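Board notes, transcribed. Complex of a protein with N-carbamoyl-L-aspartate.
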Amino acid sequence: MTTGYFFPHRHILGIDHLSADDIHHILTTAKSFKEISSRPIKKVPTLRGNTIINLFFEPSTRTRLSFEVAAKRMSADTFSIAAATSSATKGETLIDTARNIAAMNPDTLIIRHAFSGAPHMLTRYVDAAIINAGDGTHEHPSQGLLDMLTVHEHKGRLDGLKIAIIGDILHSRVAHSDILGFTKMGSGVFVYGPGTLIPRDLDRLGATVCSNLEDAVADADVVMTLRIQKERQNDPLLPSLREYAQRFGVTRDVVALARPDALVMHPGPINRGIELMPDVADGSQSVILDQVTNGVAVRMALLYLVMGNTPATG
Ligand code: NCD
């Protein structure tokens, strides 16, 4: 673990708020926790007596489960609420829901919500540490961190790499967190996708917008593809999925333009045959399941770091 460093954040709201030192410290902490998950008894007492509540207002498989697995491996008590079975369906506001949950004194609230800024808003209403598990199209910091951990593990560094991100950048909170994170750590991020799915101000985040797939992927160290977020598109922004697959889908020929040792990544869920072809998703360059494994370690690190700063655990 980094010496002489104190993690300064009570909440994890976005990569935007983290410095390169913070990111380095989180990744180092995550690496030190990784070994716990390969022990026969996968449990340490570090967060015993802490209460963690998962509050998911949008569907999730990996993120929700890996936060739960992470919390349980650290002996915290963890509870999950899915919007479909909560009083949100009876018209309760997010703030009321959060205040009622806060009345049960949790130490940490992990929230996923369609409203960009929902986790930030909750910090004003509850005492618990808040972790953003994806807010609308804004940020998904734990995904950005697990992506950086995966690349660092395979490449031994994050500086000076070329990261290509292909797909629906406009609606992807993963892309936003990755662009912020990888550029803070010294990588260059190159994006490509349909014109209607590229935000206008992307260079403000530090990414280079490419006008064709070849420029984005040429000599890349990482080729990351993203799902088209149909649930966030009111009007059709694409002609058809078949055309999308032809023009933007990542095939073996596309990956061949990148460096021979390039990593293929995807945050999941994959729409096989649309943004990523199955032989590439399952091919030798794919580290997609390493991303999932690293998700547990990164989330253990985040829980440990935010709760280390909670007076209740003092
Ligand atoms: C992503 C999300 O929910 O933002 N998934 C994830 O957390 N791994 C990406 C997506 O839904 O396409």
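Residues 141-291 form a domain with the Rossmann fold fold (CATH 3.40.50.1370). The pocket of N-carbamoyl-L-aspartate is lined by residues 62-63, 134, 140, 143, 173-174, 227, 229, 267-268 (CB under 6 Å).
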